[in-house]
Amino acid sequence: MRKWVKDNLVLVSGILLPVLLVGGFFILNSAPRLLTDPPRYDFVLVAYHYDYQHPTDYFLSFEVRDGKLSGKVVPRNEKNANINRQTASVFRYNSTENSFEEIIYDLPEGLEGIDEPIPLLLAGTDDLMLDKRRQSPDGYSFDFLGYRGRGGLLGEMFGMGRRYESGYVLKKGSANFELPKPASNSNYYQNNLHFMGWVIDEDVAP
């Protein structure tokens, strides 16, 4: 066996070197995530949309005040005419399942021609306490990465550069936990999804 290896050293090197390279790149790419505790905190997102074919004279707005999520319908005027948030979907991320669940609300009727903001009733949010700080209590942040071209040609071949399906991750140091799309058959880009806050206990709210 040793004689065969010695006689065929070039062949053996040609087989082993790519295997070692693939293994090395895989370890470098996976180690930060494997060595980091997974995210523990849920969070809430709002995905805004605009239908240019059916414009309205109002837009939707969501915010967090004193740890509570609220939404309202705002009439357009000269100062806010460029805000394109005709419709919106609200999602809660489940860290245990790595999935999103939509928070349902109903738009009031007769919104055309309103001259004062109208509040929205969000189902199941009365007990939610949200922390608006960028970083969660366990050190994660919500980020848009999209396509990472890291690693050059070898990185592209062996997974050091990749395209995330949703473009969004939970990031902690060099570890990235990929997030699914909030809703199937929907495309969300960098400016569509707006982070509202981490779901926390009331006694640790900011």
Give a description of the structure.
This protein is an alpha+beta fold. The protein has 2 domains: 2-34; 43-204, no CATH class. The protein is 19% helix and 32% strand. The protein contains 3 helices and 13 strands. The protein has helices at 2-7, 9-34, 152-158, and strands at 43-49, 58-65, 68-75, 87-94, 99-103, 118-120, 130-131, 141-144, 147-148, 162-163, 168-172, 175-178, 193-199. The strands form 4 sheets. The chain has a 5-stranded antiparallel β-sheet with strand order 5-4-1-13-7, with no helix packed on it. It has a 3-stranded antiparallel β-sheet with strand order 2-3-6, with no helix packed on it. Strands 8-11-12 form a 3-stranded antiparallel β-sheet. It is elongated and about 85 Å long. The N and C termini lie far apart (68 Å).
